Amino acid sequence: MTETVRRAIQARQEGVTAAAKRYGISATTVQKWRSRQTSTNARMGPKEPRSSVLSLELQRLLGKLTLGTEILREAMERVAAPPQTVALARDLVAGGRPASAVAAALSVSRPHLASSRQASPAWKPMGLRGRPPAPDAALLGAIQALIADLPTYGYRRVHALLRRQAERDGRPAPNAKRVYRVMKVYGLLQRHAGGAETRRHEGKVAVAVRNTRWCLDGLEIAAENGERVRLAFALDCCDREAISYVATTAGITGEDVRDLMVAAIEYRFGPVNQLPSLIEWLTDNGSCYVARDTRRFARDLGLVPKTTPLERPQSNGMAEAFVQTLKRDYVRVSVLPDAESVLRQLPVWLAHYNDLHPHRALGYRSPREFITRSTKEILSGLQGGQQQGALQVPAPTSTLSTVSRSRAIPG
Questions:
Q1: Which of these, 242, 249, 255, 246, lies nearest to 221 by C-alpha position?
Q2: Cβ-count burial of 319 within 10 angstroms (0-12 exposed, 13-18 middle, 19+ buried)?
Q3: pLDDT of the residue at 263
Q4: Are residues 218 and 252 in contact, defined by beta-carbon separation less than 8 angstroms?
């Protein structure tokens, strides 16, 4: 049906049926064109032209091929004789063409194109992007002041101490990566020996609730004159606090371990005859720990004696890690002429460990800093599966509750 017939249908006032008979079309077509405002056909297809055959991925590839064709056409227009391909590619990139598209169209290696571009006398290096780095003088001074007293600390613990100072002063803390960069540039990073194969052990010593499991171990500290001090200690397997210790120049006996139990309980719960809830007491298989009187005494107090498998010190890994920390960060950097100096400095070392030493498992907080940030202390609930009520945690002090025994030093 022509446009003239459509205009005639729209202009005549005769009925729909009569018009349909006149022009030999259906009544529906007559009614459709009478309802329209124009006699032209409406545009068919989508409002935004798009290929109905090619997918988006094919259209993208077609666009890349078109770009490559344009690059080749421009290259042929620039030269009349066969050119040096790399030089021509460099000129095209200098003119604003994408380096990747030029390299693909002319079959030139992109790294080679970049290197030849940098070797060109006209090439200028790109300036630094982003904000300039902050001055390092103040941060370097703060780091040097910390490692002067703590020379064994790596960048993570140094960053934890700097963060603590910043929080106390109300200023932004430095970024850990910046601390690492400054310490690396000025040769302050620690070199730790690694790569040694460790024995695999199952289970987990750490617990999520305080006063659920305490671990115990011992070590020997040698003075410069050959005298030796034996130390036994108790740690909480949740907050890593050194609860109590006993030190002597003789061997650790079962009586020393029992005194250690009493000191730990009195420090956490006060003068009580029995714990309000059972606590695991994890030790190795030393004779002073597994003695019959010691185990019976522990059960009377409400402790549950637990021992590690034979020849598996990693099963008490938290206590072993504390031994390494004490030796590395305190014993090896201290002047210890005799056993008396060791016994005199032990309370200072342990108080520093509890109050200030950053611990990775505690988010690089010290044990007592972690305790202070905790909301409340929940008892273990090991006894019959019944959960006990919450205890009020006493405010941490700088004095460590200890049972320290110094026996006669051999002449």
A1: 249
A2: buried
A3: 92
A4: yes
Contacts of 320 (CB under 8 A, 6+ apart): 217, 313, 314
**How many CB atoms sit inside 10 A of residue 347's CB?**
16
Residue 303: phi and psi, rounded to 5, are -90, 145
CA–CA distance, 318 with 362 (Å, rounded to integer): 13
List, for residues 74-83, the tens digit of each pLDDT value.
666 665 444 5
Q: Across the beta sheet with 242-248, what order do the strands follow?
A: 242-248, 228-236, 213-222, 279-283, 303-307
Q: pLDDT-derived band of residue 285, with 50, 70 and 90 as boundaries?
A: confident
Give 258-261's long-range contacts (Cβ < 8 A, gap of 24+): 258/293, 258/294, 258/297, 259/403, 259/405, 260/216, 260/232, 260/233, 260/234, 260/403, 261/234, 261/297, 261/298, 261/301, 261/303
Distance CA 18, CA 107 (A): 72
CA distance 337 to 319: 26
Structure tokens at 289: 């720990």
Q: How far apart are CA 351 and CA 363, in angstroms?
A: 19
In 3D space, the residue among 242, 234, 237 whose CA is nearest the CA of residue 204 turns out to be: 237
> How far, rounded to the nearest angstrom, does the alpha carbon of residue 239 sit from its chain's CA centroid?
19
